[in-house]
From TrEMBL:
Residues 37-206 form the SET domain. This is SET domain-containing protein. Gene3D superfamilies: SET domain, Tetratricopeptide repeat domain. It comes from Arthrobotrys musiformis. It holds the Pfam family SET.
Length: 369
């Protein structure tokens, strides 16, 4: 038996134009802000500058809502970057040059010939200084850039520098979550849980579902060895759980990407993976949009496809949790939050129509008796 895709508005079916404020609406562009009342930057013993809470910060608080000072397409190289930095106004250019530079020089040196051609006067000392500046700019860029690609994937600019957020250090058990929000054209950083005064605000630069050895390898790019609780944990079970999450998540995503009809058996199998994945994610405290939010939403979709009436209440609960996760990680102006609200409405409407069907049935029986 195959079941059709349910009529759910999920993230991949929403276009940006559908949720952007209409030109005649009163919604104005959100100003950039960083909640300097909540944190301060200071030097750490081993990780350069970091950001530390100066007050208790409740879970879900938006700490940054920041405009990029520089955004470039994925394929931009050293020359495009340097030109973009030189085109910044004085204050922004200074901000850029003050950021950390941790990555090693690029092995690709073709750009040096390009710079040589630009310099008519190839006076070697000046030229060498210039090359050093290009390399420093590139290292700053690689150390601090954030992905800005809107979910529509038609973005011209897709990597950006956000100077306040760039001071956030990494942890594989982060307490804040960052994401570029194309709806408001800002990078937002939200508290993932209650953060106590004095705690460092730590985001994750990488996919934290990977096991420790893989995370370590990827983090070499930033030139440090992570000493977070997940990386230093003597508990092998934790690594096992993350590997299991990664595998389950890959299976769930593979199913999600499949178009067309799906057998009920496959639906039930995938729903089983969703249930296991949710349990493990919670155990690991991994409550972000990219994992838990996505898994809840997929669970609801699968549950609606299967259509077991006694599971409908659980589907509403999961859809409500997906809304909570998106609100906490991304805020109510995000596309993900709006999609989760649509999903919740769909599942509630489906329940209502099921209840009405039951009513009709009952009244018909009553009339007959
Ligand atoms: C985006 S910057 C973060 C801010 C940086 N600490 C600074 O001084 O501006 C990334 C760099 O910070 C350092 N860093 C980030 N997280 C770290 C960690 N958990 N342990 C050690 N160094 C870290 C690394 O040098 C990394 O390349």
């Amino acid at each position: 038996m195959t079941v059709p895709d349910p009529p759910i508005v999920d993230i991949s079916t929403l276009s940006l134009a559908e949720i952007l404020p209409k030109p005649d609406s009163n919604v104005t562009k959100i100003p950039s802000y960083t909640r300097r009342d909540l944190y301060e930057e200071r030097q750490t013993p081993e990780a350069g500058i970091g950001a530390f809470a100066t007050k208790d910060i409740p879970s879900g608080t938006r700490i940054f809502c920041e405009e990029g000072i520089l955004m470039l397409p994925d394929e931009a190289g050293q020359v495009e970057l340097y030109n973009a930095v030189k085109a910044l106004d004085g204050a922004r250019e200074k901000m850029f040059w003050e950021l950390a530079a941790s990555t090693k020089p690029s092995k690709n040196v073709e750009w040096i010939d390009e710079v040589r051609q630009i310099c008519d006067e190839d006076i070697s000392s000046t030229f060498n200084d210039l090359i050093a500046s290009y390399e420093q700019a590139w290292s700053i860029y690689e150390t601090n850039r954030f992905t800005c690609k809107p979910l529509d994937n038609d973005a011209e600019k897709s990597l950006g520098i956000f100077p306040q957020s760039a001071r956030l250090n990494h942890s594989c058990s982060p307490n804040v979550f960052h994401r570029y929000n194309p709806v408001i054209d800002r990078l937002t950083v939200h508290a993932l849980r209650d953060i106590k005064v004095g705690e460092e605000l730590l985001t994750s630069y990488i996919d934290i579902c990977h096991p420790t050895a893989v995370r370590r390898h990827i983090l070499k790019h930033w030139g440090f060895r992570c000493r977070c609780s997940a990386c230093d944990s003597p508990d092998d079970d934790e690594d096992y759980r993350r590997k299991k999450i990664e595998d389950l998540f890959a299976k769930i995503n593979k199913r999600r990407a499949k178009k067309g009809k799906i057998s009920e058996k496959d639906c039930r199998r995938s729903l089983g993976n969703v249930v296991k994945c949710i349990r493990l994610l919670k155990k690991e405290g991994m409550e972000e949009t990219d994992t838990l939010g996505l898994v809840y939403a997929e669970g609801v979709r699968l549950g609606m496809m299967i259509g077991d009436e006694d599971e409908q209440e659980s589907m509403v609960e999961w859809a409500e949790k997906a809304v909570e996760v998106e609100r906490k990680c991304l805020g109510e102006d995000s596309k993900e939050f709006i999609a989760a609200v649509h999903l919740l409405e769909s599942v509630r409407n489906k329940n209502k129509s099921n209840d009405n069907d039951v009513d009709v049935d009952v009244s018909t029986k009553a009339e007959r008796s």
